[in-house]
Design goal:
Blueprint: E1 5-6, H1 9-21, E2 25-32, E3 35-47, E4 50-53, E5 72-79, E6 82-97, E7 103-110, E8 116-119, E9 126-127, E10 135-140, E11 157-164, E12 168-173, E13 186-192, E14 200-212, E15 215-223, H2 229-255
Antiparallel strand pairs: 1-8, 2-3, 2-5, 3-4, 4-7, 5-6, 6-7, 6-8, 9-11, 10-11, 10-13, 11-12, 12-15, 13-14, 14-15
Length: about 260
């Protein structure tokens, strides 16, 4: 099973220093009310007990968010065979002298007390194997806003999972009106992999809809999974399913 590993302080220090030296891109995840937003930056330096981040870079046509003092900030980066995931608290801004001797405005955050890493293979999408069925339900507003009763103003959509990774999934929707979703909208997700199994809840962002070989597909990206204990438990379970599906597909390929 793909394991979400908690790192030691020495491992955290080594990973941060490597990310700084290699100028590895950092994904920043922020929660605004019940919605999530993300952008990119780089680690500039470690100045104990703080870590300095560079200027935030938003996605195309999206406003670059601002980080408020004391805000919780999700960070992640890829290094060697792992994706590193952690959450920090913003301290403020300060001047930092870069390698060229120029003064730049840096975002100061607290040193991460905890960091987890997950094998990058878990982020390679696995098709749902033949004979296996996984169901998905989703609604606007995040995992904690699941409607408790039928309401046309707050629909719950459903569908069949087509593929999944620790980073996101594609679903074949059962409802035509899901195509009204706008890219970037936050939804709550309930995943059920087998009949009678425990459901996994998560937050996700809608990325796009497309038609492949006459089949409607909706793509979603998981967000905030590692930012609390419940989310990490969900990430561990999803990663285990991804590993299981990869093994089953590889075994089926060898039999052909």
């Amino acid at each position: 099973m793909a394991k979400l590993q908690e790192m030691t302080q020495e491992q955290i220090s080594d990973a941060l220093q490597a990310a700084i030296q290699r100028q590895i891109p950092i994904t920043v995840t922020l929660k605004r009310d019940s919605a999530w937003t993300s952008c990119h930056t780089r680690l500039l330096a470690v100045q104990d007990p703080h870590v300095l981040l560079g200027e935030l870079q938003g996605h195309d046509n999206e406003e670059t968010p601002r980080i408020a003092t004391a805000e919780r900030v999700g960070l992640s980066f890829k290094l060697k065979h792992y994706k590193h995931i952690f959450t920090v608290t913003a301290v403020g801004t300060e001047q930092f002298e870069d390698a060229a001797g120029d003064a730049v405005q840096a975002i100061s955050v607290c040193w991460p007390n905890r960091m987890h890493r997950l094998q990058r293979r878990a982020f390679i999408r696995a098709e749902i194997p033949r004979g296996r069925i996984a169901r998905v339900s989703f609604w606007l507003g995040g995992r904690d806003n699941e409607p408790t009763q039928a309401d046309p103003q707050r629909p719950v959509w459903s569908g069949t999972l087509r593929n999944i990774s620790a980073g996101g999934f594609q679903v074949i929707p059962s409802d035509d009106d899901v195509w009204d979703l706008a890219a970037g909208e936050t939804v709550g997700v309930r995943l059920a992999f087998e009949a009678g199994s425990e459901s996994v809840y998560a937050d996700a962002q809608f990325r796009r809809g497309e038609t492949v070989e006459g089949e409607s597909l909706l793509g979603f990206q998981f967000v905030g999974l590692a930012q609390d204990r419940k989310g990490r438990q969900g990430l561990q379970y999803i990663s285990g399913k991804v590993a299981e599906y990869h093994r089953q597909s590889e075994a089926a390929g060898k039999r052909r």
